[in-house]
Design a protein that fits this description.
Strand content: 15-25%
Radius of gyration: 19 Å
Order of helices and strands: EHEHEHEHHHEHEHEEEEHEH
Shape: globular
Strand order of the largest sheet: 1-11-8-7-5-6
CATH topology of the largest domain: Rossmann fold
CATH class of the largest domain: Alpha Beta
Number of strands: 11
CATH superfamily of the largest domain: NAD(P)-binding Rossmann-like Domain
Length: about 290
């Protein structure tokens, strides 16, 4: 059994990005600049954004953090997005989700210019991804594809089950794995809460991507020997034995599933670090495109 180590792989990718940034600076070219908008004081969101800012520093990017209060209006947020769209020094930016209830997330994501949408959420970029045109891939699926590639996990002709149909992970993951590309060419089934024969599908799967948000849902009894497991979920579970009072769990019951798996991502330290690395990679790509 091989652990798909997202921390180590993301660090390697960050080193590659830092080298590319160093070269840009030596050639007198523009330094990549990533901005983030954070609305409110959600603990998890603040942690994620701070991690992204630190990652920018590590690779030599410029970064900007725009902090807005919890009671900000949709109009105020749209104004900030408009300013970032127009700012030629900004290569890409993200709006940290989730947003407060008074703000329409879809409207906000649509307002981000596709050329600066380094999260890969805009319909223009999703359409280009579907048609296999050059674009920003959604950061989490992009990170998963990089893990599969860098660990040489065979996907061609394999049966893949993606559990979860979100626009952020499940759907783009199914598209990328089924495309005619290196580390694609798989036969993909998208399963969800209404799927009746989920256990049977999982038992026949060569690769399972678990992205449904239910902690430890996938158990050893549901998978076959030699399966590859990608665990996208991360949930805080109360645990009084831990100093923080909780532990982090994925959508996969690691103890039982890892005994059968040939490859598996841990939680934490699997998919999560890759997401940030791919956000940086998309920002570098945007900067290089804009410099041409």
């Amino acid at each position: 059994m091989t652990i798909l180590d997202g921390r180590a792989t993301s660090n390697t990718i960050k080193e590659e990005i830092a080298e590319a940034v160093k070269k840009l600076k030596e050639e007198g070219k523009k330094t990549p600049h990533l901005a983030a908008i954070l609305v409110g004081t959600d603990g998890a969101s603040m942690t994620y954004v701070n991690a992204k800012v630190k990652a920018c520093e590590k690779v030599g990017f410029n970064s900007t953090l725009i902090d807005l209060p919890e009671d900000s209006t949709e109009e105020q947020l749209l104004h900030e997005i408009s300013d970032l769209n127009k700012d030629n020094d900004i290569d890409g930016f993200i709006v940290q989700l989730p947003l407060p209830k008074q703000i329409d997330e879809q409207k906000i994501l649509m307002a981000v210019h596709p050329d600066k949408d380094v999260d890969g959420f805009h319909p223009v970029n999703v359409g280009k991804m579907t048609l296999e045109l050059p674009t920003f891939l959604p950061a989490t699926p992009f990170g998963i594809m990089q893990l599969l590639e860098r660990y040489n996990v065979e996907t061609s002709g394999k049966n893949v089950v993606v559990i979860g149909r979100s626009n952020i992970v499940g759907r783009p993951m199914s598209i990328l794995l089924s495309q005619k590309r290196s580390f694609g060419n798989a036969t993909v089934t998208v399963a969800h809460s209404r799927t009746k024969n989920l256990e049977e599908l999982c038992q026949n799967a060569d690769i399972i991507v678990a992205a449904l948000g239910i902690p430890e849902f996938l158990t050893g009894a549901m998978v076959k020997e030699g399966v590859t497991i990608i665990d996208v979920g991360i949930t805080r579970i109360k645990d009084e034995t831990k100093k923080r009072g909780y532990r982090l769990a994925g959508d996969v019951h690691f103890e039982s599933v890892s005994k059968k798996a040939s490859f598996i991502t841990p939680v934490p330290g699997g998919v999560g670090p890759m997401t940030i690395a791919m956000l940086l990679k998309n920002t570098l790509l945007s900067c290089e495109r804009r410099s041409v």
